[in-house]
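Good morning C.,

I know you're traveling, so I'll keep this short. The sequence:
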Amino acid sequence: MTEAGNTTEQAMAEKIDEYRGARIVVRFDGHACIHSRNCVLGNPGVFVPNAQGPWIRPDNASSEAVAAIAHACPSGAITVERLDGGSNEAPPPVNVVRVWENGPLAVHAELAIDGQEPRYRATLCRCGASQRKPFCDGSHKTVAFTATGEPATQESSALAVRNGPLAVKALRNGPLMLTGALEIVSGTGRTVTRGSEAFLCRCGASSNKPFCDGSHKKIGFSAEGGSRS
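The tokens, ready to paste straight into the viewer:
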């Protein structure tokens, strides 16, 4: 959504809102939204910024079109339930961790995140400043976080199995530990590395981003609140 829609966003941020159409139900979790604007740019007739009344209008497009936009939401803030017999969201064929330039890690997988409901999409903080770790809340913009979205390619072998459950554990005042088949890709989709385990920086200080290099210990990183030191 646009900055002009901030009032609407803030009002929605405390709960999951439901927008029921004849063929599909759209649910919006304002707390998870990072305002990537995929929805309002992808179908502004359904996702209407600065609207008077409901800003999501499920009947303004086919259920397939609405579902496609929802499934492109990187944070998982938008989900849908089909009422027309169509297929609901399924796990992706490849577990992907996408590294965003100066921003979070966008994960698409059959996610099992400690203390969270199962999901398929999430944006995870890597700047260290988010107030709702392990998730991104947009604080990377506030703190002017800089980190490439095009890390160097590492030698890795193709995975025999590329999907399945991906466990995400935020180690105490340390990195994110991901366990399960995963492919880490750059912002442009280039494969950075593949494997079954990764330790990814979430303090913002690693010199080997997106990977942890132990800098969280040097800077005294605390995962409580939004402080990076």
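Safe travels,
E.
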